[in-house]
Amino acid sequence: NAGVMQNPRHLVRRRGQEARLRCSPMKGHSHVYWYRQLPEEGLKFMVYLQKENIIDESGMPKERFSAEFPKEGPSILRIQQVVRGDSAAYFCASSPAAGSDTGELFFGEGSRLTVL
Amino acid sequence: SQQGEEDPQALSIQEGENATMNCSYKTSINNLQWYRQNSGRGLVHLILIRSNEREKHSGRLRVTLDTSKKSSSLLITASRAADTASYFCATDRVGSTLGRLYFGRGTQLTVWP
Q1: What is the pLDDT of residues B77-97, one digit of tens each?
Q2: Fewer CB near the last or first residue (10 Å), C or N of chain B?
Q3: Could you tell me if B2 lies within 8 Å of chain A, comparing CB atoms?
């Protein structure tokens, strides 16, 4: 049973370019979360999605950032017109559908974005 | 804002010794979780303790929770070099979105062989 799969693992972009990060949740999981980790810091919540729905995006910057989790395919975190401050590790996590109340999140290995 | 705050920020011990990390938080919680992160890797869930629990064990891990002091501790007994990693506490706040966790900055544990 594959875990949460994220790609790319490393991404380098120049200022002003777009970054697209992909996440496939664990099999059977329909809840996807994106977190961001700046160097030497803990993770900060960005957005929570279920299939075709954004449930909570209050942690995501209003501009340049967007997320989706389509009916088919992986969840995508998109950052437009990247700036140096976007350099960070972006982690995706998933959890099972309703019925599991353990609260545990299953994390991917992360996508490390470097903006030159 | 950050929710959990771990201390110490860094801890260096010898193999076989016990490692204790602490976490404090500010608001009411449903549960508190500890995660481990190896350098350059993702987070791995270690243990979850609910707000109505005071102590929990899992293998060499022991977690305590004191809701009156809004604090938790993670004890790793008989540490091994392979325990070297960053350890984060994360809180599930009362009233917060399902799965939205608030992480501290972490404790960097180094275990010397």
Answers
A1: 999 999 999 999 999 999 888
A2: N
A3: yes
